[in-house]
Amino acid sequence: MNGILRLLKNELIKIYHQTSWRVMTVIVLVIVTGYPILVDLLNDINRSFAGFDYEKLAESAPEGSIEKENYLSSAAADAYFNEKGMDVDNWQYIRYYHEYRDTLCTERALRLIAEEGRDINEVLDVFFINGVHKKYSGISDTGKFEYDIQVFDDNSGELIFTDDETVEFTIGYAEQLLKEIVKLRTYIEEQIDTSFSEYIRNTYINRFDLDQITADYETAKAVYEKDKSTLKAYQAAELKAEACKRIITALNKLNEYSDTLSHEQQCTVISTLADISYYLENTEMLAADSEGVFALNGNNCYFFGVTYNNYDEYVEAVKIKQDLYYRSVETIAYSLENNKFIDFYTKNSVRSHFREALKINMAIVMFFGIFLASVIVSGEYSSGAIRLLVIRPRAKWKILLSKLLCMMIYVLGITAVTSALSLFVHIILYGQSDLNVPYLIMHNGSVSEVPPIIYYIYDQAVSILPSLMIMCAAFLLSVISKKSVFALAISLLANVFAGSVSRLLYNTARTAARWLKLTPIPYFNLNDCFPNVIFQLKRYNDPLLYGINLDQGITVMCIYSAVFIAAAFVIFCRQQIKN
Asked: Alpha-carbon distance 352 to 110, whole Å?
């Protein structure tokens, strides 16, 4: 043991006295310190340039021009929200500003055509009206505007035109559209005046008729018990009923506390629920129409970036997404009920900034770790120093173990120092308002509180595990090749491109080549599998839908890391060191 410790001490001293490693360590520390400062500076610059001053743009436009009318319409939207005291920190602004501004612009464009007799082509060269497109003839820049789909309705689902019509856009159609757009503007203004809890209830809760959905499920179940060929229709009804039951329960719980949120938290909830709502509409449609979808596509279905070859796999994927929806809303509800910070990315969240900085830090640290692993043994061969080590009465495995421990100590040490330094800088810049608030994790159907330090360590360990495995592979290559350049080039290329290759082969690992799941290839994006339900829900190409999960990834990475290290020891101990 003393021999190993002396060797380890010598290795650490050797690194410390090498100018190149001193310089690289200083570079890492400078980057870690400067990154949050740079981000804060860029955020200030972005805030100063955010948005447009439509009033100034209108003043600079020619009097009576259509451009001026367009800018004045947008300025009217800004003025409307300013009068109500609403800005980017209000949920109404986040939810309705762009829709309201587009509606005002559309209304003004239609008035210019229908009431003031302005040329249709000139108006539509400046204003954009959904569904009105210019049909070009050959390579000519001229053409007529045609109306091929109507997106505005009278809030009862009645469309002016059907989506299979293509007609020339005329003043008559502009007059019809104007009536509907005025209704839409009035409706949006009414919605802006509703409370946050009313918005959640009207937009999300009231749209589910749970009694009817349950009745449809019971009917489908009864039919299936008599006729087993209706399995798909029964499963679709079951998916919808189960999801809606759990979702409505969570939404009702959320609604009890929604008006107690700060403006910023309300904005965060609105953003998340909007994503969830979009997802749910798609899964409801796919669940209900799944039998027809599969028949149309030859017994396969494309769902959230994944092609499923049989109905059972498809149903399982829908269940995963629906469960993520429920867990997301339940997590929000729990955070409100227990007065816990909602674990989303918000501009004033110190820990959100800190976590992002940690990921950058780890990427930099692992780059230098891979570099060290690639040269720590091969460098001894290149310099000839390896002969001085082996001529002494020490076992080869002790020599290699000391180098391995030295590499790990350097990586862990620089990780600890950079993390502490980054935390210190973030506290100076942003304070420590939410750093000590527990993280919320859904586990076994219930929400659990995780201390931040445990969450950070686990999060970063999962994030860097693929790079650690590459470090072990670089260590093995360093022993085998005896050339630093070769080991370094292969390892860094793997670190840079492994994530992209991994995503490309997700589906192959699920279907055509299931043996890939026994290799590290599908698991280079382990952070994508981290148990953050909000993050997972918003992912399009979700690894969970490919049957790839965190436990599998950790197990495979650890096994391969151990194999690489064991192989390095076996090869090094059997190598002949020539004088």
From this structure: 45
Residues contacting residue 501 through CB under 8 Å, at least 6 positions apart? 521, 524
Question: Could you say which DSSP state residue 527 is in?
Answer: G
φ and ψ of 146, to 5 deg: -120, 150
pLDDT digits (tens, 9 = 90+) for 289-321: 555 555 544 456 666 667 777 777 777 777 777
Residue 134 phi, psi dihedral angles, 5° rounding: -95, 125
CB hemisphere CA count around 197 (13 angstroms): 11
3-state SS, residue 51: coil
Q: Any idea of the CA torsion for 306, 310, 313, 316, to the nearest 10 degrees?
A: 110
Residue 48 has pLDDT above 60, yes or no: no
Q: Residues 492, 497, 503, 507: is their CA dihedral positive or negative?
A: negative
Name which of 273, 274, 455 is nearest 354 in CA terms: 455
Rg (CA), the chain: 30
User: How far is the C-alpha of 7 from the C-alpha of 209, rounded, in Å?
Assistant: 72
Q: What angle do CA 476, 479, 481 make, to 5 degrees?
A: 100
Q: Is 307 helix (H, G, I), strand (E, B) or coil?
A: strand
Residues ≥6 apart with Cβ < 8 Å to 394: 3, 7
- How many angstroms separate the CA atoms of 530 and 343, rounded? 14
Distance CA 217, CA 223 (A): 10
C-alpha count within 13 angstroms, C-beta hemisphere, residue 40: 18
- Mean pLDDT over residues 180-194, rounded? 89
Whether pTM exceeds 0.90: no
- HSE toward the beta carbon, residue 209, CA cutoff 13 A: 5
Please classify residue 572 by burial: count the beta carbons closer than 10 Å to its beta carbon, then call 0-12 exposed, 13-18 middle and 19+ buried.
Answer: buried
Q: Kindly report, residue by residue over 385-426, the tens digit of the pLDDT.
A: 666 665 665 677 887 888 888 888 888 888 888 888 888 888
For 437-520, where are the alpha helices, taking DSSP H only?
452-481, 484-504, 506-510
The residues near 538 (Cβ < 8 Å, ≥ 6 apart) are 275
